[in-house]
């Protein structure tokens, strides 16, 4: 049995059966049986079903946000925005179903056409930090393209995916199109990766497990999309609006208690304004409201588990941080304070993904060094550039190795724009129209017109 906990109270909130290989195979078989019928649904009707799902998510938004907040320990306000995004994602892909066309290509002796074909059964494996959100980023384009799905949520956070599966049926999407299997990554996940009837794996998780997915997929030459870890840089130049950059920076790291692949956990600051910026940053960090996730005013909750809290703590052993915030005085809950550490880019804290509310603040001399330090990491997911110089913003945006960047903002995830990483942050793109490429193959057909 799997006991699901509320990380803020450590209370059990559900007991679930865990699936094994047999149940995984049964889910794949169901998805396979349904594939022909689902791909044959007329595009407008498939769009209508996804639209109905989006509307049901909106109608159940408070319930879904509550589940997510209790299961992940995330503040209810953040959980509400995430559920709003889930609905928006299904609305977007409902509209996208009939807006992707093939081509006609001039060739000798006839006509060449392309078709976008669904892949078949797609395995979706998601992490615990944004369980429903990330599931929707994959489900939307997968279903829009006409594939059927086996979705494996993270063991720690299966509840919102299970509720979503009920809403999928309520929306009228036929049984067998979306199959949720709760179980261990090493069992259910691994089986999906190796299963000969699974055509593609959409994976979000750590780089370490992503590597295993890549190895496992080689056996069947399975298509994979990998959304992996990050160690993103928040570049603050001396000519930036420093107050604004400093006020925003804590939320770019401590949101979701730092358990965010896009966390700008390396704050790189130009040396000439370093002290001034750091003072603002400490004030802004001290103002982050940490506490009961069910309260509207709470900005940061606990970490996901005791084990994860222990791992995060190892990054601070022997380090005298520049700032350490407060946590609730309860003996229950996996709390960890907002922490700022002055570091160099070579320190462990600046190299590894801590995945907790810990930021490394690092000085740089000039634009050349800023770009060099930003790129001196195995990762390449996200990042921010704060400057009032438009030309510099563009230069640096082109030079930083990352899949998603923002200028004078820390917000780079939107339903309609592509999201994904470079280097060891993975490959493939989610969201926007680009995600559809990952869940379909292009078929080329030549028709001779010769008599
Ligand atoms: P994880 O890699 O431990 O697990 C992710 C998923 O993979 C879970 O469902 C897990 O059960 C499954 N899994 C584990 N072992 C497996 C195996 N051998 N085969 C197949 N599946 C297996 O990651 P996590 O701890 O749940 O999430 C945190 C990580 O996810 C962080 O590294 C974070 O950066 C990353 N992440 C990336 C993105 C992104 O879009 N790039 C978004 C969110 C989180």
Kindly summarize this structure in a few lines.
Helices cover 39% and strands 19% of the residues. It is an alpha/beta fold.
Write the layout of secondary structure elements.
Blueprint: E1 2-5, E2 12-16, H1 21-40, H2 43-59, H3 61-72, H4 76-96, E3 104-107, E4 110-118, E5 121-125, H5 131-144, E6 148-152, H6 159-170, E7 178-180, H7 185-194, E8 198-204, H8 207-218, E9 223-227, E10 233-236, H9 242-254, E11 266-270, H10 274-286, H11 306-314, E12 323-324, E13 339-342, H12 348-351, E14 358-364, H13 367-375, E15 383-386, H14 390-399, E16 406-407, E17 426-427, E18 440-448
Parallel strand pairs: 5-6, 5-8, 6-7, 8-9, 10-11, 10-15, 11-14, 13-14, 15-16
Antiparallel strand pairs: 1-2, 3-4, 4-18, 9-17, 12-13
Helix pairs in contact: 1-7, 2-4, 3-4, 3-6, 4-5, 9-10
Structure, described:
With 451 residues, the protein is α/β, with parallel strands linked by helices. The chain is 39% helix and 19% strand. It is built from 14 helices and 18 strands. The protein has helices at 21-40, 43-59, 61-72, 76-96, 131-144, 159-170, 185-194, 207-218, 242-254, 274-286, 306-314, 348-351, 367-375, 390-399, and strands at 2-5, 12-16, 104-107, 110-118, 121-125, 148-152, 178-180, 198-204, 223-227, 233-236, 266-270, 323-324, 339-342, 358-364, 383-386, 406-407, 426-427, 440-448. The strands form four sheets. A seven-stranded mixed β-sheet has the order 12-13-14-11-10-15-16, with helices on both faces. Strands 7-6-5-8-9-17 form a six-stranded mixed β-sheet, sandwiched between helices. Helix 9 (242-254) links the parallel strand 10 (233-236) and strand 11. Helix 1 (21-40) crosses helix 7 and helix 9 (242-254) crosses helix 10. The chain is globular. Bound molecules: nicotinamide-adenine-dinucleotide. Nicotinamide-adenine-dinucleotide (NAD) binds next to helix 7 and helix 8.
């Amino acid at each position: 049995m799997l006991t699901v906990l509320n990380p803020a109270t450590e209370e059990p909130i559900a007991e679930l059966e865990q699936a094994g290989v047999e149940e995984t195979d049964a889910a794949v078989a169901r998805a396979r049986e349904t594939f022909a019928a689902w791909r044959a649904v007329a595009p407008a009707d498939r769009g209508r079903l996804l639209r109905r799902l989006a509307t049901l998510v909106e109608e159940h938004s408070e319930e879904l946000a509550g589940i997510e907040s209790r299961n992940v320990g995330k503040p209810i306000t953040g959980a509400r925005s995430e559920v709003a995004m889930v609905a928006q994602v299904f609305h977007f892909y409902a509209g996208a179903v009939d807006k992707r066309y093939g081509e006609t290509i001039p060739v000798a002796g006839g006509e060449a056409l392309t078709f976008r074909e669904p892949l078949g059964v797609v395995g979706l494996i998601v992490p615990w930090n944004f369980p429903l959100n990330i599931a929707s980023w994959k489900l939307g384009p997968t279903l829009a393209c006409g594939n059927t799905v086996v979705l494996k949520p993270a063991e720690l956070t299966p509840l919102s995916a299970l509720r979503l599966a009920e809403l999928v049926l309520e929306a009228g999407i036929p049984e067998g199109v979306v199959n949720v299997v709760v179980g261990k990554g090493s069992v259910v996940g691994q089986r999906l990766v190796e299963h000969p009837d699974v055509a593609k794996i959409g994976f979000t998780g750590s780089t370490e497990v992503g590597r295993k997915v890549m190895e496992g997929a080689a056996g069947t030459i399975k298509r994979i999309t990998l959304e992996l870890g990050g160690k993103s840089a928040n570049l603050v130049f001396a000519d930036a609006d420093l107050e604004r950059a400093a006020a925003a920076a804590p939320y770019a790291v401590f949101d979701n208690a730092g358990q965010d692949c896009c966390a700008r956990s390396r704050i790189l600051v130009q040396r000439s304004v370093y002290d001034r910026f750091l003072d603002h940053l400490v004030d802004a960090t001290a103002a982050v409201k940490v506490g009961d996730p069910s309260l509207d005013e709470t900005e940061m909750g606990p970490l996901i588990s005791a084990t994860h809290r222990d791992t995060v703590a190892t990054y601070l052993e022997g380090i005298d941080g520049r700032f350490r915030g407060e946590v609730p005085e309860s003996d229950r809950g996996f709390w960890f304070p907002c922490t700022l550490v002055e570091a160099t880019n070579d320190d462990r804290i600046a190299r590894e993904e801590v995945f907790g509310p810990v930021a490394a603040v690092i000085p740089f001399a000039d634009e050349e060094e800023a770009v060099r330090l930003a790129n001196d990491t195995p990762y390449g997911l996200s990042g921010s550039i704060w400057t009032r110089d438009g030309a510099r913003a563009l230069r640096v945006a082109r030079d930083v190795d990352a899949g998603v960047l923002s200028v004078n903002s820390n917000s780079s995830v939107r339903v309609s724009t592509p999201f994904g990483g470079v280097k060891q942050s993975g490959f493939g793109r989610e969201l926007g129209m680009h995600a559809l490429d990952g869940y379909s193959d292009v078929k080329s057909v030549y028709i001779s017109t010769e008599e």
